Amino acid sequence: MAIPQGSTTNNNVEMDPLYQARILLLAETAPPSGLIFRLQGSGAFLRTTSAMNDAFQLVTGWHPALLILQDWSARFAPWLMELSAYPVCAGLPVLAIGVDDDANAMSALDAGASAYVSTPCSETLLLAQASALLKKNQHWKCLPVERGSLIQVNPGSCRVWVNGEEIRLSRRLFRFLHYLALHPDRTFSPQEIANVLTDGRSLIQENSVAAQVHRLRKGLEKAGAAEWLETVHGFGYRLSLPPKNAIDVNLS
């Protein structure tokens, strides 16, 4: 199904790891307004909370691609270690921000933080570190998709069910559908799709992306779902589930 839309978006923005990335900021004190402005200006979907219990619910339910812990201290350590023990949190990158102190930094890294940035530091440095962590992020590969009988994706067994029927896909097409199913109704540019298809290790031409889209549609066709994979002219492609069953995920 082709859906006409406007002109193409900026490729540099689309390839920015921060663009449309879900980021959760846990800050018990008021987070820097400049950092929030820069993250949102980069196109990130940002949520903030001041409570560890609320952060836990968001991590396990909203599935951010990056967790930022502001004003790190050792008392965060037990909470972060408990969080990291949950399978749904496997591989979630965590950026801890705290005072310039070796002991404080080691407590964060020992508890499971991916990186530690000492303050004071520039917002540009924080964004660069966040981008670096997002580039390496493989967290989404561990997340199952369960949307009733519409679509189920089991990353552990690499199996997919659509409309209650199992469909067989190559490894590359499995990755493609898995990623789309985690972000229903989001439009991806050919460049973003190429990054998913190759795991970010190589570049492929736009016509190769179109060929993979065609192959995935053929796979979905076997379960009567070929029309779910839509072409958005001038932008890219998206997976749209039937409206009456689709789950509305508020990204803002």
Describe this structure in words.
- This protein is α/β, with parallel strands linked by helices and 252 residues long.
- It has helices spanning 11-14, 33-41, 52-61, 77-84, 102-111, 123-136, 171-182, 190-197, 206-221, and strands spanning 2-4, 22-26, 45-49, 66-69, 94-99, 115-119, 145-147, 151-154, 159-162, 165-167, 229-233, 236-239.
- The strands form three sheets. Strands 3-2-4-5-6 form a five-stranded parallel beta sheet, sandwiched between helices. Strands 7-8-9-10 form a four-stranded antiparallel beta sheet, with helices on one face. Strands 1-11-12 form a three-stranded mixed beta sheet, covered by helices on one side.
- Helix 4 (77-84) runs parallel beside helix 5 (102-111).
- It is elongated, with a radius of gyration of 19 Å.
- Residues 1-14 and 245-252 have low confidence and may be disordered.
